[in-house]
Amino acid sequence: MPRIHVVPRDSGWAVKSEGASRAYRTYASKDEALRAAITHARQNGYEVVIHGRDNRIQKIISPREIEGKGGGCFITTACVEHYHLADNCYQLKALRKFRDKTLIRSSNGKKLISRYNLIAPIIVSHLKQDKEKDTIFSYVLKEIDKACVLLESKNHKGAVAIYRKTVKLLAKRYRII
């Protein structure tokens, strides 16, 4: 399978196709490079290989993880799959509707979605391998349910705050941020 690598450089981070002698482009931060690599990988069906400062491979993200099943609700989709719920369950429908009809319409919402799409597949990959995944999935689903209740009452800021807090806790647990 074709791969694209995010590799360290003296002046930042580079995105480089596997086997290429030169980097496609260099970015100031790893976050920017990873975002570009994921965009490129999504368009071409590549895996993304993320390296650390020591140039060792930290993580490989498959095309399926990049695309996410169920339209980008990566963490909620993982919970739904864990509990064997339908892809059109209440939680996924509520969050997708909010994302597609409300969040995407503001520049801050677009930034939030973009950042989420960058880190959520990595979080899910770690979460599925976590020995405490049952406990974590239980916590996450409770938080998702709280966010959905707030969306029903039109408390969008409250719902975003809950989801953002949950994602931040997971990212911290898996040392993504």
Largest sheet: 5 strands, mixed
The number of distinct helices, counting runs of at least 4 residues, comes to 7
Which percent range describes the beta-strand content?
5-15%
Q: What general form does the structure show?
A: globular
Task: Round the mean pLDDT to the nearest integer and report it.
Answer: 87
Domain count: the total is: 2
Record field, number of beta strands: 5
Helix-strand pattern: EEEHEEHHHHHH
Helix content estimate: 55-70%
State the end-to-end distance.
28 Å
Contiguous low-pLDDT stretches (5 residues minimum) are none
- How are the strands of the largest sheet arranged? 3-2-1-4-5
- Alpha-beta classification: alpha+beta
Oligomer: single chain
| Cα gyration radius (Å) | 17 Å
Question: Could you characterize what this model shows?
Answer:
With 177 residues, this protein is of the alpha+beta class. It folds into 2 domains: 3-64; 68-173, no CATH class. It is 58% helix and 15% strand. The protein has 7 helices and 5 strands. The protein has helices at residues 30-44, 63-67, 74-82, 90-101, 107-129, 133-152, 156-173; strands at residues 3-9, 12-17, 25-27, 47-51, 57-61. A hairpin with a 7-residue loop joins strand 2 and strand 3. Helix 3 crosses helix 6, helix 4 packs across helix 6 (133-152) and helix 6 runs antiparallel to helix 7 (156-173). The two termini are 28 Å apart. The model has no long low-confidence stretch (mean pLDDT 87).
